[in-house]
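hey can u check if this looks right to u? its 385 residues, i copy pasted from the old doc so theres a chance i mangled smth
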Amino acid sequence: MRFAKLVGLAALSAATLASPVAAQSDKPVLIGVHLDRAKQASYYSTLQQQAMDILVKQVNAAGGVDGRQVKIIYEDDENNPVVTATKVDKLAAEGVSYIISIGSSATGLAAQARANELKIPHGTPANIAENLTASPPKKYYFRTALRDSFASAAAAQFLKKKYGNPKLAFVRDATETGLILSDQWIKDLKAAGFEVVAVEQITPGSSDVTAQALRVRDAKADVVIVLGGSIPDLANYTKMHRTVGNKAPLLGNYLFTSASFIKLTGPAASGFIFTDAVDPSRPEVVEIEKQTVAGIGEGARNQPVMIMAWEYLRLVLDAIKRAKSTDREAVRTAMEQTKDFPIGLGPAGTKVNYSESSHDLFTGPDQVVFREIQNGQYGAAIQWR
């Protein structure tokens, strides 16, 4: 019962993971995680790692999962899809029951391909690339992240409501993730009837993005869409966007939920609007944030990716408990049979309902949250519907 107290409202409708029954085994429940520790994706990878570590500590203190302690094995994928595949092999050899991707969408795709071959259940709290759960879904893959096409469809509705029919420019970084995500948005927003007047690309690690900012300004876009996987590079663009006098509003995906973006951009981020999977006003979110702040300090304040990782791991551990086994096939089946699982993502009342034909939490653009950076802080959810 202690676990339900620790996660508060986020677990009111979920079964308690700890059990008074004697331990089934002295062996721990092994969860594999691949992440980027030092490159472009590290800005959000490490935050997710911290959230999961805090939750695991609490679960273990409360008795574990049916009396078994939980152990996470982390592998650094170096934000490299080729390296990621080898890390999945290593985690498979360690005997993990589940693999979680908290790096970039590009490494997530590589992990998915290999884990599916090995028949290991796996998934992500934050990777948004469309193909990860394109129909039909991969049998072993489950996602709670906001699917890219839903984010772009919500952006289309938001743009039309707020700006009419604005001309758009796109700025993206040239990471593999940046190209995957931006190609999807460009395709979707063109199909929604928007005119695209410029597409500018930033090479990762570039120190000067003045040329890109000037070309975007001269294209006279009404709104500039900023997308990618490299926070430092897109933070540089955001600052230069203001420096060259471009007053066009900026809109991005939820890469920008990482507070490092605000630290890198300073006042230039004011007014930046982005799609999000987390409504910070939800009581469940407030309660989880209390736990993460208590665990690592103020650095956990207003960090949506930490909420995403916490809730995903909670879902996976609940599936293992329901499976009454750490057998991979049993866990996969339990994940697919998840019904009405309350989760602190999306609008109030959102629940996880997987099936053979759907391994996504989000089912449409109406569940997307929009937020704006104001005075150096992430603001409340914008009422946009």
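Residues 106 and 177 are 5 Å apart (CA to CA).
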